[in-house]
Amino acid sequence: MVFLDAQKEIVLRELEVLREHIATEKQSNAPLDLGKVSNAVLRDLAEALRRLKESFMPQIEELIQKRNDLVEELGNLGRMKDKSFQEFEQLSLKNAQLAELNNQLVHQIQELYKANSNSTDSNRQAPNGLGIYHHKDKSTASVERDLRSITNEPSPGIVQPEEAEPITVVQGPQVVSIRKGQPKKFNWKRGGQNVAKGVTKGLKGAFLYGEGKSQREGAQFTETAPYGSIPPTSDNNSGPQRAQTQDPSRQGFGFFGNQKTKTSQWKPPANGSSSVLNEGSIGLFGSDLEQRLEVERGVIPSIVTRCIEEVELRGMDVEGIYRKSGGSSQVQMVRDGFERSRDFDISDPDLDIHAVTSALKQYFRMLPTPLITYDVYDMLLDANNITPASSRIDVMQHGLQELPRVHRDVLEFLVFHLKRVVDRERENLMTSLNIAVVFAPTIMRPESLSREMTDVQKKNETLQFLVDNCQDIFMGMPE
User: Fold this and answer.
1) Average pLDDT over residues 301-320
2) 290 and 246 within one domain
3) Are 460 and 444 in contact (CB under 8 A)?
4) Distance (Å, rounded) from C-alpha 205 to C-alpha 217?
5) Is the pLDDT of residue 419 over 50?
């Protein structure tokens, strides 16, 4: 449309000039000189076009200025979009880290709750001769203290020790073993008479049980574990009665019956697995890298080699590898597996590859000393200000030389793997910048938490340069 408008204006000027010259020739009544007329027409037409161009110049300059402003605005919007995407990636990573920390806290709370419940169950007072528990949530010490206070304070409703009848030892209850799931009635004829006989006397003396237990050395009725369970190491005072309660022909009531296999103490297998126990004595997650390698007697931790091997086998073409997080249950399963054995199998196709990468990132994140140590952190960040790439490589090589040999070997192994991930960017959409955004807060962090957010951009640039130039940096370092 602009081109047609310009053509229209030019044609109008030509017609106007021709009309003026034709009218002038008609008024002069002189013979028509085509050469003279054509020169005059061309001269006037050029002058008219010049005036037309000058009239459009302010509009053209204004439009050019608007175009330049729009180009600059588009550039700013593009940069803002990239920055927003980077901030989104960082927030997503922080969100994933917070979710992982939340899962860890929930898991720890559950473990503490289980440990407390187990300790409460282990401290529960054994049932008396009638199989009745006298407390539910109180500890044995509190019950004994209550009984002691009861026996020390006179009360009209409680028989005092000097007024009590002789204590009758009540035998353990005789129950009929359950066969084929059919319960039978309690047989009062077989041993039940001793239970029924003197029950009143036994109840009168029961209040003195907590205080008098420590004073009766030869007593047969002692505090034992539930029927069917393996009691702890006993003293010489409980021999006859405990031997009787542990008779394999006897069974207890309900859930207490036939639990010898459930409550038996765990014994270590005798098939040469002591090395696994020695490795398990030092936890994997949260342990020092050098200390872990001393246990494994290797160069790279087994969890790092196994996870990276699995990623290179079936995760290099997965979109968002290392950026997406795995399910918390599968991540915890991978963690527990490597805590038990360094040869834990993660090659199951049903195991999400993102769970493997999340476990690997958690391992690096939980190192007490980060993979890029605090001593080298500032040196690598300062290298971002060096403009020539060759000089920057030299400075980074000098900084990496300051790392402990174990940290440098693991870092080199990891960075070359990340470079292979970036080489398949078309498939997994993970550029070196995306990899840096994911791994920078995982393998390098400042000593001061106040710098955690201010150094985000510098850490990303450092790790991105390290991944892009890993061949020149690591292969050019002296041994």
Assistant:
1) 94
2) no
3) no
4) 17
5) yes
Please tell me whether residues 334 and 417 are part of one structural domain: no
Q: What is the predicted pLDDT for the residue at 140?
A: 47
Instruction: Look at residue 149 and tell me if it is in a domain.
Output: no
| Same domain assignment for residues 285 and 382 | no
426/429 Cα distance (integer angstroms): 6
User: Helix/strand/coil (H, E, C) string of the chain?
Assistant: CHHHHHHHHHHHHHHHHHHHHHHHHHHHCCCCCHHHHHHHHHHHHHHHHHHHHHHHHHHHHHHHHHHHHHHHHHHHHHHHHHHHHHHHHHHHHHHHHHHHHHHHHHHHHHHHHHHHHHHHHHCCCCCCCCCCCCCCCCCHHHHHHHHHHHHHCCCCCCCCCCCCCCCCCCCCCCCCCCECCECCCCCCCCCHHHHHCCHHHHHHHHCCHHHHHHHCCCCCCCCCCCCCCCCCCCCHHHHHHHHHHCCCCCCCCHHHCCCHHHHCCCCCCCCCCHHHHHHHCCCCCCCCHHHHHHHHCCCCCHHHHHHHHHHHHHCCCCCCCCCCCCCHHHHHHHHHHHHHCCCCCCCCCCCCHHHHHHHHHHHHHCCCCCCECHHHHHHHHHHHHCCCHHHHHHHHHHHHHCCCHHHHHHHHHHHHHHHHHHHCHHHHCCCHHHHHHHHHHHHECCCCHHHCCCCHHHHHHHHHHHHHCHHHHHHCCCC
> Considering the entire predicted model, what is its pTM?
0.46
359 and 402 inside one domain? no
User: Which residue is listed with tokens 């528990």?
Assistant: 133
Same domain, 361 and 406: no
- Tally the residues of the chain: 479
Q: Which of 218-227, 246-255, 423-432 has the highest mean pLDDT?
A: 423-432
